[in-house]
Design brief:
Elements: H1 5-23, E1 25-26, E2 29-30, E3 52-53, E4 59-61, E5 65-68, E6 78-87, E7 93-101, E8 112-117, E9 125-130, E10 143-150, E11 153-161, E12 168-175, E13 182-183, E14 190-192, E15 197-204, E16 207-215, E17 221-230, E18 237-249, E19 256-263, E20 266-272, E21 280-285, E22 296-300, E23 307-309, E24 315-319, E25 327-334
Antiparallel strand pairs: 1-2, 3-22, 4-25, 5-25, 6-7, 7-8, 8-9, 10-11, 11-12, 12-13, 12-14, 15-16, 16-17, 17-18, 19-20, 20-21, 21-22, 23-24, 24-25
Length: about 325
């Protein structure tokens, strides 16, 4: 149990150092070898893409192939971190994601990368960045987008930050074409801490659920995944905790980048654990309103993983992150 901010600050420093060590970053400097993503694995004894499952295997993840490098055409190296894929009505794929020049500088991630491709596997073409930070709307960062299509519009949810880490904002922007975005007048959609971020939205029956990373109390505590619900995608309420990790802290933590897949009457929660940076854990539940930490069904080496299903029914998972050299894709095979 925690009783004051001081232990939480220590927890943050330890967690941040653990992540930086796993990346080969020290004091903000980049060391040699970052161009080889297989050196940044959570478990270097396994080839990148190998999944670790329970005896009753639920899924397998194949090898990761690089599909997009944001540094192409640039004088400096760039990264993509949390990201999202969406297929337009005309069949074109769009990728949006956190971006910045290397080395990592989270608080200076002020706009989203945008790329397009005729197929999920590419070739991907770099486009102009979108959603530059709007300080007049109290935005300090533009992080972790998630895009869906509904009622003839594309809805993008993203973390807009804020001056108070205990009251971080999740904002909404909409677009008719995935190129021109307009912030919603009802922003913020969510205000929560610590550094509430990484929204993912899905429809369950007659309501929408937004999952996001937070802590058990706004000023810190256990790292959790929370949800809020909505009937119209622009007014959210009924906050509740759906997953709690034993680890406590503030920044970072093992519940980042939550992504939920509904399959065969089960719900699978994917979270980035930050244990070695490249590690995603998957939990199984009968409901989208609760997962237990003991319901782990597998892990695979990926940071900020997204799950994508193509029109032909194939499944993929992605990975990206600081010092990773771009965005990667691997085939996901469901075993049941």
């Amino acid at each position: 149990m925690w009783h004051s901010k001081k232990p939480l600050e220590h927890e943050f420093v330890s967690a941040r150092r653990r992540v930086l060590r796993s990346l080969g970053l020290a004091g903000g400097a980049v060391v040699a070898g970052l161009a080889a993503p297989w050196r940044l694995m959570a478990n270097p004894t396994k080839p990148m893409g190998t999944s670790t499952s329970t005896p009753n295997s639920v899924f397998l993840v194949g090898g990761f192939d690089k599909i997009y490098d944001p540094s192409i055409g640039e004088k400096e190296r760039w990264y993509i971190n949390d990201h999202t894929f969406i297929r337009a009505e005309n069949g074109q794929w769009h990728l949006f994601g956190i971006t910045h020049r290397e080395p990592a500088n989270a608080q200076q991630e002020k706009f989203l990368a945008h790329a397009t491709a005729p197929d999920l596997t590419g070739p991907w073409t770099k486009q102009a960045s979108v959603l530059h930070v709007d300080e007049k709307r109290n935005e300090t960062v533009v992080w972790a987008p998630y895009v869906l299509r509904h009622d003839g519009l594309y809805w993008m949810y993203y973390c807009a930050g804020g001056r108070d880490h205990t009251k971080y904002h999740i904002h909404l922007a909409t677009s008719a074409d995935l190129w021109n975005w307009k912030r919603h007048p009802a922003n913020p959609m969510v205000v929560d801490g610590y550094d509430a971020r990484d929204p993912m939205v899905m429809q369950v029956k007659d309501q929408w659920l937004m999952f996001y990373a937070a802590t058990s109390k706004p000023d810190g505590g256990n790292h959790i995944v929370s949800i809020v619900t909505s009937l119209d995608l622009s007014h959210w309420s009924n906050k509740q905790e759906v997953f709690r990790d034993p680890e406590v802290g503030t920044y970072g933590g093992p519940t980042e980048s939550p992504f939920v897949v509904a399959r065969n009457a089960k719900y699978y929660l994917f979270v980035c654990t930050n244990h070695g940076y490249n590690e995603t854990a998957v939990y199984e539940s009968d409901t989208p309103f609760h997962w237990d930490a003991r319901s782990l069904v597998g892990k695979f080496p990926a940071h900020a993983a997204e799950v994508i299903q193509t029109p032909d029914g194939k499944w993929f998972v992605s990975r990206a992150g600081w010092g990773q050299g771009g965005v990667y894709l691997a085939e996901l095979t469901w075993e049941k």
